[in-house]
Structures are given as C-alpha cells and as structure tokens.
Design goal:
The protein is α/β, with parallel strands linked by helices. The chain has helices at 11-18, 61-71, 106-109, 118-124, 127-135, 147-153, 172-192, 201-207, 232-237, 269-289, 313-325, 394-410, 412-433, 457-466, 489-504; strands spanning 92-94, 100-103, 165-169, 219-223, 255-256, 294-299, 329-333, 359-362, 369-373, 439-442, 450-453, 469-470, 472-474, 478-481. It catalyses: 4-aminobutanoate + 2-oxoglutarate = succinate semialdehyde + L-glutamate.
Length: 506
C-alpha cells in the first residue's frame, strides 16, 4: 500500500521546483559535514553518513533531467524525491545530485531497518530467497514444501495475541480487501445457519447476476478521515480526501465519527472523553440501524493518512465491546502502525483488550502483507472463495522473517519506545519556543509515531528538505514523523536542529 498511502501533497515539491531556477542555498542551510564521512552506529559499523548534505535545490539539475525523462513514460506528478538507492544508507536517502537527507518519512513508513541494511542484504543473497524469487509459487495451488515452516518462523512468529493463522497478500489494500471478503463470507455462513450449510440454487444463480440473495446486502463500517486503501472495497471505507475517491463507483457503506481529540490531553480530559463516548454511541447506532448492515468495523489504531488522529485505549476497548455485543467483526488496520513503530510490535497492544481483534491487517514495514485471524470459521467453507494466483510472495515473507529476527536481536521495539520519548520531549520544547508551529503535538508514549500541525504545512515540508530532512505530511495540516526502527537519539538531535531552523524561517 505504499503508493496508495503516499503523501498527497508531495507533488507541491515538484511543482515548486519546476517553477523556479536551481539556485545556491543560503549558507545557513548548509551543514559542515559531508555524507561521505561514516558515523558510529549503535547497530552497524560504517553504515551511514554523519548527517545530511544539501548541495542543490531538490530536485537538482541531474534529478530534474531524470524526472523529465521518466515523465515521458510514467506519471511523476506525485513524485516526492527521485532517489539513488545505491547511495542511500541507514537512515539517509540520497538523490542524483549528491543531496543526502535524514529520512524520517521512510518510504511512507515502509522501511523498518534502514536502506541497504547489511543483514537484509545477506538474507536477500540466500539460496532460499533466490528460489522464492525466480520460481514465484502460486501459493494457493503450488505452495513450496517449506511454506508452513516459513510462515511459522516468520509471519506467525509475531502474530498478535489470540490470532494464530494468516492469509498472505500482496499489499495493504489487498490485505484489507481480502479481510472484508472474509468478514462477508463469515457473516453469510452464520446467517445461513452454520459453516457446513450448502448454498441454495437461488443463491448460486443470483450471485451471477450481482443480485441478492447470492450478492449479500452487507457493509463494512469505517470512520471519517480513515484510509484503508484504493481497491474497490477498501476505497469505500477510505474517507481521508476526496481526491482518493472522486469518479470511482462506491458502496453505500456507513461511516462513524472518529473522535477528534484536543491537546494537550491532560488539559482536555473531560472533553476528549465526551467526544469518544459520542463516537462509540454513533458506532452502536449505525450497527443497529444502518440500512446496509455492517458485517465488520475497520479501524486504524492511529489514523495516519487522515491526519495522524489518535484515540485513547478506552475508546478502542469500548469499540471491541460494542462489536462483540452485536456480533460484528473488528478488523484492526495495522498496515502503517504495525511492526514496532509505536513502541509495541502491534499498536493495538497499547489498548490492553480483554478480547483480541477478529482480524489484524499488516504490510509496509513487514515488506509483505496479509491479515491475521484466529477463528477457524473465518476460513471460507469452500476452496477458491478466498483465492488469487499469487496469494502473497514467498520472497517477501522470507524478508519479513529476516526483519523480525533483526528486530529481536537488536531489541528495536524497546529501542524505538525509548528514542520516541527522547524525541517527543525535544519537540515539546520546540512547541513552547515556536508557538503556533508545532500545534497539537501528539504521539506521546507511542514510540516515534509522532505528529504535529503546522499552518503552512506544505511550505514547511519543502523548507525541511533545504535543511537536510525528508519528512511527510498527512491530512490538511499534519507533519508526521515516520522514522525507521534504527533511528537513534543522535538522529533525533539532527532532526530537531533542522526543524528549529525551519521554524525560524516563518
């Protein structure tokens, strides 16, 4: 889902660059060190530069030439930065003009262990990986002999509590879409009278006409400002921006209000609790009365593309209670929040749920995709009902296994929680010193999954590049931080120093 969830304002960067000449940067935006000098890393030796190097406007002349060439055959209007991956390393992203930026956007939250990670490079060169790449099994029909072992030693090794099975997929949108299908099939099996009840002839024939009863009259309930993907089912649950949905046929599915919290949280406790209570009451009303009954509710632990919107653990516990009360499934979309970024391996672990979600979808930092589940009745009652040619990618599953092993070896989840606390404190100081520029600072205690609002967000992002930082936005005004799990306190210092310089330009 990485392209589906790309920063939608990033084309502002390219448009701005195309309308002005490449000029030398002011001296204050240059850094005194160069990207060629290696720095000491807590995790790997001689892996990444000391810090950013900014030589030209971004895109610079070489990049602009390459962008023009690419634009002849590929739409570049959403381009953020044309990247030279051979020269990117660790937490740093490079371009064709020799610019090297500290990357706290990380391919839209999709890079877990840094660019050109030596451990992943070793895994990629293994015979097992080569076998998966060049033979590319159609997993539903021809799974490899070791597929169970690969799943158990990798994807299922980090399965959320209570969920011991997985359906593998290609991307985050695909993961959510297939989770929706599982929910609909589960609900109709229940309505029909049980897992082993056969379809009627009327159901079989009407399904071919896209009519009831074979085509069910069911929905998925999502939340305003949510993002779950760009396929046809997921797009009907995506509510973050009109540009995602305009002109595309959509299902008549319900949406509830996601509570909009006020910050600082401790100053608005009563108001925030009231907002969450009202949101839960709306969810329950829609489940009971919406004219297309929901089979499931899907929710992000933190609404990422929609503006980095948070809710309390109590809200999510209430949501779990309501869905169980009414026999509706709860799907937690961990595509962006999963794999350690919030200081827990899965963000929903922060909620202390008495009962696990019914399904948890994943992608991005996992470098593969799919959904976890525990209830065996979420397997369809017939083969080929939940099926496609690839059903995921063994090579990507092997890569996730290597990522998991490295996260455990380096204790990166706890590391991210610690660095996130350090970074948040520094950002709190910036918010005090630059009133109005780091508004609604949020993500305290959530690892490095941090965001704030800026009144001139797009301009802020452009200026950040000039000071050596690649950063992203979401919603209307949010600046969102998505560092890699190997982001250290020294990187936080570089980031905060650059953000301070950006703030001084406003």
């Amino acid at each position: 889902m990485s392209t589906a969830r790309a920063f939608r304002g990033s084309n502002v960067l390219l448009r701005a660059a195309r309308t002005r000449p490449v000029v030398a940067l002011p001296r204050e935006s240059r850094r005194s060190f160069t990207a060629s000098a290696p720095s000491l890393s807590k995790f790997y030796d001689n892996w990444e530069p000391e810090g950013p190097t900014v030589k030209t406007e971004i895109p610079g002349p070489k990049s602009q030439e390459l962008i023009n060439k690419l634009n002849e055959v590929f739409d570049t209007r959403s381009l953020n930065m044309l990247t030279d991956y051979s020269k990117s390393s660790g937490n740093y992203i490079a371009d064709a003009d020799g610019n090297v930026l500290l990357d706290v956007y990380a391919q839209i939250a999709s890079i877990p262990l840094g660019y050109n990670n030596p451990t992943l490079l070793k895994a990629a060169r293994s015979d097992e990986m080569i076998n998966g790449i060049i033979n590319r099994p159609a997993l539903g029909n021809f799974p490899p002999t070791d597929w169970a072992d690969v799943l158990k030693s990798g994807i299922l090794k980090v399965a959320p509590k209570g969920l011991n099975q997985v359906f593998t997929a290609m991307a985050g949108s695909d993961a959510n879409e297939t989770a929706f299908k599982a929910a609909f099939m589960w609900r109709r099996q229940r309505d029909r009278g049980g897992y082993n009840v056969e379809f009627t002839e009327e159901e079989l024939q009407s399904a071919m006409e896209n009519k009831a009863p074979g085509a069910s009259n069911l929905s998925i309930l999502s939340f305003r400002t949510a993002f779950h993907g760009r396929l046809f089912g997921t797009l009907s649950t995506t509510r973050s921006k009109p540009i995602h949905k305009i002109d595309i046929p959509a299902f008549d599915w319900p949406q509830a209000t996601f509570p909009k919290l006020k910050y600082p949280l401790d100053q608005f406790a009563a108001e925030n609790a009231a907002a969450e209570k009202a949101a839960l009451e709306e969810v329950e009303h829609l489940i009971q009365h919406y004219h297309v009954p929901p089979a499931a509710v899907i929710v992000e632990p933190i609404q990422s593309e929609g503006g980095d919107n948070h809710a309390s653990p109590a809200f999510f516990r209430g949501l779990r209670e309501i869905t169980r009360k009414h026999g509706v499934l709860l799907i937690v979309d961990e595509v962006q929040t999963g794999v350690g970024a919030t200081g827990r391996f899965w963000a929903h672990e922060h909620w202390d749920l008495p009962h696990p979600p019914d399904m948890v979808t994943f992608s991005k930092k996992a470098q593969t995709a799919g959904y976890y589940f525990g209830n065996p009745e979420l397997r369809p009652n017939k083969p080929y009902r939940q099926f496609n040619t690839w059903m995921g990618d063994p090579a990507r599953a092997l890569l996730f296994r290597a990522i998991i092993d490295e996260i455990e070896r380096l204790d990166l989840v706890r590391h991210t929680a610690k660095v996130g606390d350090y970074l948040f404190q520094k950002l709190e100081d910036l918010a005090v010193r630059f009133p109005g520029q780091f508004e609604n600072l949020r993500g305290k205690g959530m690892g490095t999954f941090i965001a704030f609002d800026h009144p001139n967000r797009d301009e802020f992002l452009i200026k950040a590049k000039k000071f050596g930082i690649n950063i992203g936005g979401s919603g209307q005004s949010a600046v969102r931080l998505r560092p890699m799990l190997v982001f250290e306190e020294k990187h936080a210092d570089i980031l905060v120093e650059a953000l301070e310089k950006v703030a001084k330009t406003f």
